[in-house]
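Sanity check record (used in CI):
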Amino acid sequence: MVSVRDVFGIDSAMRVPAFGVRDDHVPEIDPGYRFEPEVTLAILSGFVRNRRVLVQGLHGTGKSTHIEQVAARLNWPCLRVNLDGHIGRMDLVGRDTVVLRDGQQVTEFQEGIVPWALQRPIALVFDEYDAGRPDVMFVIQRVLERDGRFTLLDQNRVIQPHPFFRLFATANTVGLGNLTGMYHGTHLLNHAQIDRWNVVATLDYLPREAEIDIVLARVPELADAAGRELVGAMVAVAQLTREGFAAGDVSTLMSPRTVIAWAENCQIFRDPALAFRLSFLNKCEPGERPIVAEYFQRGFGTELEPCGDAAA
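Expected output for AAA domain-containing protein:
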């Protein structure tokens, strides 16, 4: 058992089980990662009490990474599965395959993701949970119940979960579908299934100074006074895009992931304006680019020159 206060720097008396040895499924530790206290405690409740934890939030907030970094500090094996439209029932449950045994072709059942993970001390993370096909999602409904056993009908076998199996998920919505128009491909989820998630945490964008620190940790070449001022202006522009999105002025917002990409591209092109165009502006609707250019002007105190002038 490890102390949450010692390992995560959160004022809590909670103690969490941890493994003493790392294996290939344990994520690498990011020493610069910043933990949001409430979301971290929600995730830790999954590891301590075997709660089913769903982390919801806008893109780029670090939902999946948050779970991985908690697991990394606990030496807990972690497996991420992206529930895109190509994941089917056989991928989750398993299928019969033809293999060679002693020179003879025989049919053998190959376990899918769910039964494989259930039998191991592993944290299974369903990424983009709200993008899973509705007909497939019911496959995991029984597993969502704590200590829920999984039945392989084709094998007439019932799988008992490993005592240290844990289940998490991330989603851009809370099973309500594509309400904002940002997340095409997400689905309305059955309320009975959403109700099986014991803990639902919302991860928002970090405060300004914390976001600056994260960008500087990822791009250490900017970790001086001038670099911090530059990144501060970048984060200010990103926050303006988020405010503009909330107000309905623009349909595209800048995530921390995009800010990091912008900072990295600044190191390549040595021009914040050009890097901004290539990192974010060209992703925006043409009719909204003047508004986004105004955000740049407000953040940097200088006009964003048209592409043709920059190239000249």
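Residues 27 and 72 are 5 Å apart (CA to CA). If this sentence no longer matches the regenerated tokens, the check is flagged for review.
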